[in-house]
């Protein structure tokens, strides 16, 4: 006669977000009620060590330390001269990094796609100046860490840049023109406001090509 096996019946409760045997959350996971009571009392009244609490995120890294930043009007970054100084410092640092590793520019801009205004100009150039300019704003063409938007593809050293007034200043445009000029390139700056008038824009590009084709 086979031995009888005593089977203990436990009450099972369906929990909306229970955990599996590995501690992972499982939707509609069935956890026996007696197990829940047992697990609830395991760590009751106990605390982890400071190191463990830090690893679990219960203690922040800067608890009890003096904050290194300043809020409100006392923040130095609120002052325009400080922001300009920091921006120029970062610009120089990035430029030096690009000069040391030109491939870095290509990697940074590899997945860049033309924005709405650039797509508009691409269509205008293809229709009115076919096979004249190619969009290289994705890092395909770089000079001293600077990546222009369009470059002439017919052997002429011509560059076209699209600048938005809120993000670019005239001083920046002059710097880029001078840097490209060192390598024999003529640069045309198109400001975003000029893209509103298609007729004047086409005439401006046509004159740019005509003057520099002699």
Please name the defining characteristics of this protein.
4-stranded mixed beta sheet; Endonuclease, Chain A; single chain; 7 helices; two-stranded antiparallel sheet; alpha+beta; 214 residues; 3 domains; 39% helix
Task: Give a description of the structure.
It is elongated and about 90 Å long. The relative contact order is 0.07. Helix 3 (80-100) packs across helix 4. 39% of the residues lie in helices and 14% in strands. Mean pLDDT is 76; it is low at 4-17. The chain folds into three domains: 12-55, no CATH class; 72-100; 112-211, Endonuclease, Chain A (3-Layer(aba) Sandwich). It has helices at residues 33-42, 50-55, 80-100, 102-109, 116-128, 170-181, 198-211; strands spanning 12-14, 17-19, 25-27, 30-32, 133-135, 150-152, 158-163, 186-191. The protein is of the alpha+beta class. It starts with 11 loop residues before the first strand and ends with a helix. A hairpin with a 5-residue loop joins strand 2 (17-19) and strand 3. It is built from seven helices and eight strands.
């Amino acid at each position: 006669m086979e031995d009888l096996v005593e089977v203990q019946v436990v009450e099972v409760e369906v929990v909306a977000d229970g955990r599996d045997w590995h501690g992972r959350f499982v939707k509609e996971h069935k956890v026996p009620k007696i197990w829940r009571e047992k697990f609830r009392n395991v760590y009751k009244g106990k605390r982890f060590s400071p190191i463990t609490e830090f690893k679990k995120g219960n203690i922040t890294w800067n608890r009890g330390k003096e904050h290194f930043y300043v809020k409100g009007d006392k923040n130095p970054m609120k002052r325009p001269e400080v922001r300009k100084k920091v921006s120029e410092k970062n610009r120089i640092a990035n430029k030096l990094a690009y000069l040391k590793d030109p491939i870095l520019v290509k990697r940074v801009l590899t997945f860049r796609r033309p924005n709405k205004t650039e797509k508009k100009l691409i269509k205008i150039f293809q229709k009115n100046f076919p096979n004249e300019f190619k969009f290289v704003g994705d890092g395909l063409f770089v000079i001293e860490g600077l990546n222009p938007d369009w470059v002439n593809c017919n052997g002429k050293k011509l560059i076209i840049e699209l600048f938005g007034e809120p993000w670019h200043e005239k001083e920046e445009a002059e710097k880029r023109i001078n840097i490209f000029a060192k390598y024999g390139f003529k640069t045309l700056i198109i400001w975003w406001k000029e893209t509103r008038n298609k007729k004047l824009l086409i005439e401006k590009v046509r004159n740019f090509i005509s003057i520099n084709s002699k």
